[in-house]
Write a structure and sequence with these properties.
heterodimer; A: mainly alpha; disordered N terminus; B: 83 residues; 4 helices; elongated
Chain lengths: 213, 83
């Protein structure tokens, strides 16, 4: 069997935001508007992924950037602006989620009931070499969105921060006020659950799904 | 010797390259020898890749306009340079 390779890390924020941020912090509103334009798509996606509601996501987008503008003088710049705005948007999104559904599943507390004690893999099947060729870009997007929507909020939020918005484990822990082991444990469960959901669409044709652990 | 359960528990860190060389060696050995775990490893890795490869879509124009207008109002109240 071939030497396996770890998943490639994408450059989440390839452009250098520092000069723009510096200008914005000195009171240049055009620079701040450029930062908004740079990140609005990612912040809207994040808000939509967490809230699973279009109207809430629109509110989160606006409130997050307005708050960031308001508090920019207090932003010390130890972290990237992107990480900071993500943290603000996550808080806004979680508040929306809590308002909309006052059930316990929305809690981000460490000791919430997460459903299982150990990661579970119920079934496995080999994927097509290039399963994405079977679907249009739009269909793929829908498959991925629906799979995320099917996760519990506590898992969904961690996955979105780590594997969609590409924050580090430490940044995710800080943004969600969770311990690093809690982030890791939820991330593993989220990844395995998504893997299983995607297997239904991407498995090699003709192959049976077989039971595992 | 690692069990499949051990492998599964270490899978995320393995994929993120967040394991020490010794642990990595054991996980690597297990995945090379266990076909089931190899499938789980491969499909989990590809799950992450497919999400990471998905670009954020452009936001609707009217949403962008509303955001910029709200921002301009806020900026005007501060008396800074207009965006």
């Amino acid at each position: 069997m071939d030497e396996v390779q770890p998943a490639k890390e994408n450059a989440a924020v390839a452009f250098d935001e520092a000069p723009l941020l510096e200008r914005a912090r000195k009171g240049d509103d055009r620079a701040f508007a450029e930062l908004v334009e740079k990140y609005e798509r990612k912040i809207f996606r994040l808000a939509r992924n967490i809230t699973q509601n279009e109207t809430d996501a629109e509110d989160v987008l606006q409130d997050a950037f307005l708050k960031a503008y308001e508090h920019l003088p207090e932003f010390q710049g130890q972290s990237k602006f992107y990480t900071w705005i993500v943290r603000i948007a996550v808080n806004e999104a979680l508040m929306k989620l809590r308002k909309r559904k006052s059930d316990r599943t929305v809690s981000m507390d460490e000791n919430i009931e997460t459903g299982e004690d150990a990661p579970i893999v119920r079934e496995i099947a080999v994927w097509d070499d290039d399963p994405e060729k079977r679907y249009s870009r739009e269909e793929i997007r829908e498959i991925l969105d629906e799979a995320i929507a099917g996760l519990k909020p506590a898992f969904r939020t961690v996955f979105v921060l780590r594997d969609v918005e590409e924050l580090s484990t430490e940044e995710t822990a800080e943004a969600l006020n969770l311990s690093i082991p809690a982030v890791k444990s939820r991330l593993l469960r989220a990844r395995l659950q998504l893997r299983e959901k995607l297997t239904r669409f991407f498995k090699r044709k003709g192959d049976d799904v077989f039971a595992y652990l | 010797m690692l069990t499949c359960k051990d492998f599964l528990n270490g899978l995320s860190d393995f994929l993120d390259e967040a394991v020490d060389p010794d642990t990595r060696k054991h996980l690597q050995q297990h995945v090379n020898e266990c076909p089931n775990c190899w499938v789980v490893y491969d499909t989990t890795k590809r799950t992450i890749q497919v999400y990471k490869g998905m670009e954020a879509q452009t936001i609707p124009q009217d949403l962008h306009s509303r955001l910029m207008r709200a921002l301009e109002r806020k900026m005007a109240s501060r008396g800074h340079q207009q965006a």
